[in-house]
Amino acid sequence: MNPILTAFKTSPDRGRGLARDMPARWALEEVGQPYDVRLVTFAEMKEPAHKALQPFGQIPTYEADGLVLFESGAIVLHIAERHPGLLPTDADARARAIAWMFAAVSTVQPPIVERERAFLLERDKPWFDARQPALEQEVRRRLEDLSDRLGDAEWLDGPFSVGDLMTVTVLRRPAGANLLADYPNLAAYVARAEARPAFQRAYADQLAVFEAASAG
Amino acid sequence: MNPILTAFKTSPDRGRGLARDMPARWALEEVGQPYDVRLVTFAEMKEPAHKALQPFGQIPTYEADGLVLFESGAIVLHIAERHPGLLPTDADARARAIAWMFAAVSTVQPPIVERERAFLLERDKPWFDARQPALEQEVRRRLEDLSDRLGDAEWLDGPFSVGDLMTVTVLRRPAGANLLADYPNLAAYVARAEARPAFQRAYADQLAVFEAASAG
Q: Is any Cβ of chain A less than 8 angstroms from the Cβ of B171?
């Protein structure tokens, strides 16, 4: 039996690989593990049957051999622990790769999501413009530190790892991505990751879901 | 040689256990691993020597036997992997405990931090009051789902684990904690965690640092 991911039946990102199933698909493609997808609507995500799998009514979930997991970071780490290729074998390097996963979701991502939420939810508010500079500055602080650390390296810490996979996932969100031109090494880093065949396959698969739903 | 954590020389939380060294201290106390602390000032945190350890100029860092780690979640997980007591031995239960860690820092925490940042940075802005209901509602959505999942269980998934440690750490932040009275099972859950001897020791130690700095 293949593992099963849940994903949006109609993703609000219109298939641009920004929904949270994308990092899980990408990790499964990197390690060569086939998987199945069960699509859910927004209404279904908030129903008890889905919340039994995902307490916050979100996607993705991951089901395999009786295990039910949620949180894209946890799913990606679980996949990386069960297949070679996404975590270094050296114990210290492995711990550092996991540190980059946590940095991606809890340090780099929050100001990006906050800026994104202002665009989505406060665009028509009288304070929208006045809040923009501070929101942008918070994103830039993280991008600048990340750019300084990456330098001219190919990946954050040795070979491509789950740390890079989650960091690139976060950097692709538009509220950060639309500033990346000012950080050429980060822009090149994201482009390198997007060129990986596993990313391409995952991207094509999630886009196909959106296109099928739109055509249906 | 004991592991070394970095922590604020003068914590902005005035020793209330809200700085990011707290979960690392707590985890080390839970597993009975002695540790040393190196205190850093705000200015020192932004200097190259500290940024070589922590790319975003934050605390804590963790140094042990040549390994340098950052991100409190990653440090807590690393400690839990090297000592018994904070991660289930069953592989599936272990993966679920790690899922709760990611849920804590990337799903429960962001709206709490966003509400906190409005209190800290936008208190004097003309839009402060108008934004409050939506900010509060976002926190409540997470608390309600978490409360539903916890139910009348003692901990989130079997015995106390790193998942509880990180979730309680997040729930203790005032911008969420000041709503907990409406979720009695979450309030009791946090109180149970705070009553643990390991929490008490970690709390006392970080408070002693603040009091020594204030007296100095």
A: no
What is residue B33's DSSP assignment? Answer: -
One-letter identity of residue A107: T
Distance CA B70, CA B54 (A): 6
Determine the pLDDT at residue B93.
98
Q: Which of B1, B26, B3, B2 is nearest to B206 (CA)?
A: B26
- CB-nearest to B55 from A71, A127, A145 is A145
- For chain A of 216 residues, list the mean pLDDT of each consecutive stretch of 10: 96 95 98 98 97 98 97 98 97 98 97 95 96 97 98 98 98 96 98 98 97 87
Bridge partners, A36 (sequence order)? A4
A105 → closest Cβ in B77, B95, B102: B102
How do A61-64 and B4-8 pair as beta strands?
unpaired
User: Given an 8 Å threshold on Cβ–Cβ distance, is A110 in contact with B107?
Assistant: no
* pLDDT given for residue B215 in this prediction: 87
**Tokens in use for B12?**
């902005």
Instruction: Please compute Rg for chain B using Cα positions.
Output: 17
d(C-alpha B46, C-alpha A100), whole Å: 19
Instruction: State whether B96 and A58 contact (CB < 8 Å).
Output: no
> What domains sit in chain B, N to C, each tagged with a CATH number?
4-85+198-215 (3.40.30.10), 91-196 (1.20.1050.10)
Q: For chain B, say whether A114 makes contact (Cβ under 8 Å).
A: yes
| Out of A57, A126, A145, closest to residue B57 by CB | A145
List residues bridging with A39 in a β-sheet.
A7
User: Across the strands, what pairs with A69?
Assistant: A62
Distance CA A185, CA B90 (A): 42
Instruction: With cut-offs at 50, 70 and 90, classify the pLDDT of residue B26.
Output: very high
Q: Which two tokens stand for residue B61?
A: 């860092």
Instruction: Compute the average pLDDT of residues B64-86.
Output: 97
Whether chain B has a CB inside 8 Å of the CB on A94: the answer is no
Structure-token match 């810490």, residue found: A157
Residue keyed to tokens 């090494």: A185
A158 within 8 A of A88, measured Cβ to Cβ: yes
Phi, psi dihedral angles at B36 (to 5 degrees): -115, 160
Strands B36-40 and B4-8: parallel
**Rg (chain A; Cα; Å):** 17
